[in-house]
Specification:
The protein is of the alpha/beta class. Helix content is 44%, strand content 22%. The relative contact order is 0.15.
Length: 314
Amino acid sequence: MRIAIIDIGTNTFNLLIQESKTNRLILKNKISVRLGEGGLVNNQLHPEAMARGLAALKEHKKTILENKVDSCFAFATSAVRGADNGKEFAENVAIETGIKINILSGDSEAYLIYEGVKLLYDFGKPYSLIMDIGGGSTEFILANSEGVKWQKSYDLGVSRLIQLFNPSDIIKEEEVEKIYHYLDKEISELIEVCKKFPPTELIGSSGSFDTFAQMIFERHQYPIDLEKTLKYNFKIQDYSEISGLMLSRNFEERLNTPGMIPMRADLIVLACVLVNHSLDRLAISNLKLSTYALKEGVFKTLEKENIPWQESLL
């Protein structure tokens, strides 16, 4: 049985098609949409962005039908759940495509990310902190072998921060300090939780962390294929080096950095700021990558008898 999972993110619409019994990967695809462009701060999806979103979903539907999928489930995260016209967008998508969107709460999104990461990592007794950087929100999940200790979704995605702070092309030190001050207030609960239950590692799930890894591989000619290895332990010096480069380069220079995914060239600076802030404030020096995240977590939940998700009828 072939199952399709559509992750309707703030910036990209991701598609995963996989066999249910064997877990064999059939296809992974992503389309840059920028659904939250210009509207995250005032909680509105702009008409142009919704049009791009609908076009992307029609393209994904075409791919799904070509691959003879049996079941399809679609999920929307920060941009749609936070928009006053998010439900209107979902209703229009259902009418136009038959794709029924499950609008996830922040807690549900964090839980599904955890389920995805758990497929790659066996948590021990020490705590691990999972971090998923999106366009509209960033999720933190503190977990160990006993399960999730604490989780929270923050409205701290890279696109939202860009709209809030409008940093210079080459970000200035005072702009970084201003964002750090804002983050200190926003994630104060996370900082307090981590004082009580200190994590020994930060696991970054997919997205920006994939890009960090790919740039590092290209820079140092590491013979690693993320499509096959799925997870990776960063050398903290490698990450610090690539982060420093991103913070010191303009858009064109970032875009032309080997390993850069073009759609992330303008967003990677704020991703660096978020990761650097977390590593610094939480005193973590062990950084890992999980290429599995929300989509894979959804796939895991479909093994349960009582599936809570609304299925699309294509």
